[in-house]
Amino acid sequence: ATPTAVMVATGVGANNGVLIKGGDSLERAQMVKYVIFDKTGTLTQGKATVTSAKVFTGMDRGDFLTLVASAEASSEHPLAKAILQYARHFHFFDESSPTGCSKNDSEEFKSGWLYDVSDFSALPGRGVQCFIDGKRILVGNRKLLEENDINISTEVENFVVELEESAKTGILVAYDDVLTGVLGIADPVKREAVVVIEGLWKMGVIPVMVTGDNWRTARAVAMEVGIQDVRAEIMPAGKADVVRSFQKDGSVVAMVGDGINDSPALAAADVGMAIGAGTDVAIEAANYVLMRDNLEDVITAIDLSRKTFSRIR
Ligand code: ADP
Ligand code: MG
């Protein structure tokens, strides 16, 4: 393709919210064989909603939710935001108070109702840990609780499995090293996901999903959108290894992701595509920025490259 053709394509992309960093990226996209999608926030809306909360000890439900929300208050994770919203709603708009309660603009609504936490740490791919009144609280997946030797009863395990089989993520909570409750979180897939995955198959491109979430939830979501190849329970650094494993036979691999977690994988891919609002780190690591947060732009990007580099030979 002539420099002019590349310039035109870059302009067409920009008009559609597809920002291309350089002619090399534009050229590589035509040869993509695999597109590896992150799950949370990429295939799914990233607008997680708590759909259930179950307490397994004698703890009061309101106390439980406030405790969990306090622990998550410093986390940037979409799951943390969902938990906070749910707990806040319970705290301020519980059946005892009428709707339209005027408290919602106050400082208290934002943070005043939460407990003070100390020694907060975010554990990527696992959850969060902190201390409240000297007692440890862990909020996250099975792996997090197992690593900390928290006993998970059959009753709790069954509840979590049930959530996962319906494509939900189960978040486990341990307070003072006792499994206290579980939250079920739903994150619907993007409206266009099914059509885009089908489109990729038709173009001869193989879609793959990679996620830090558990196998059962991952499989349920993959099935919903039409992806067969799933890699689950992958720690953030592991996503880049997944990309490399697909590159081994010389295949050109695209990675589509939104989070900080995804930047090593975006950088490792032949074509890294940061989607949506994305984090700055992800945008930095990518060759393409898909501004509209619409998966159709993955196809637009590949199409644009194919058209640019086949027309002028
Ligand atoms: P993905 O790869 O799908 O974007 P992440 O790697 O961000 O997912 O997270 C993987 C898993 O780690 C989540 O499904 C959740 O179980 C757990 N997790 C991560 N951060 C948090 C958090 N702040 N609160 C609770 N659980 C978390
Ligand atoms: Mg993500």
TrEMBL record:
It is found in: Membrane. Belongs to the cation transport ATPase (P-type) (TC 3.A.3) family. Type IB subfamily. This is HMA domain-containing protein. The chain holds residues 608 to 920 of 989 of the full protein.
